[in-house]
Specification:
The protein is α+β, with helices and mostly antiparallel strands. It contains eleven helices and seven strands. The N terminus and C terminus are likely disordered.
Length: 315
Amino acid sequence: MQAIGFIGSYWQQSLTIIGAFFLLASVFLVGRIIREVPKDSERSKWVSINVLVLFFLLAYVLYIILEGVGANTHAESLVPIILIAGAVFVYLVCRISCSTTIALKRAETLEIENITDSLTGVFNRRYLDRRLREECLLGYRHKYDSAVIMLDIDHFKRVNDVYGHQAGDVVLQQIGLALNSILRKTDVVARYGGEEFLVLLPRADHESAMLVAENIRKHIEQSVHQVDICKKREKKLIQVTASMGVASFSSISTEASPENMCCVIVDCADKALYAAKVAGRNRVSSWREVRCAQPENADAIQGAGSGLWANEYPA
């Protein structure tokens, strides 16, 4: 029985010593957190945690000493104190975890707002530029094709003039929702300008991008947008069409660097879009076809290369 009691006491002291080492390591970890956290209420909470951990460590050391000298009664009196301190410790950790979760959720919301167009719900130009650069670098490094679709709503100014800008906003919103529902989750849809959208199709070749663009065109053509006319207090049904230009990395014959390729592919899709406008709108034009156009048409198209930025599209 004495041997069993000795083994039990030895095992208890060993576990206590191991716990003390973990607490000592926690002191350094919490100290690192305190150095990283800004000087606000959150930092003061972590300081309280560190003080509590130090108290735990002191109680463990005192318990080990009392057990070592045979003062079992005094050692046992420390147990309730350690248990109460443990409960306080868990409570403080839960409070910090709750506030941290709220802060992370708020940061996530701000991040989403920072990369999203507030009107249409698709990505904004800032996020598109970043993803386009990333895709150009990855495509160049791993030798795979990607494509972009430049989309412009035909005669959109007429919608604003006839039905009002709020009606135009509704049309843009519904087209943004439609694009997000049609495309893959890996595709990137962004509002590029007033009524222009740009779609990035990672790992899609030119032919696949043409099929996707034609599917989008048909969907927009067949969609009916219901809008409220505020002044007349009535609902109107509006139908619009869209013109699109498609370009892919494989369709571009250029020695541009990967960093500049994103500008080149957007410019080529821009020229293809202009060609679709000139050809009568409500159609998809391929940069590959534009590049092989007849010489007399090629000059006009090449001259419109910056149409998107200079607003040179036909209405």
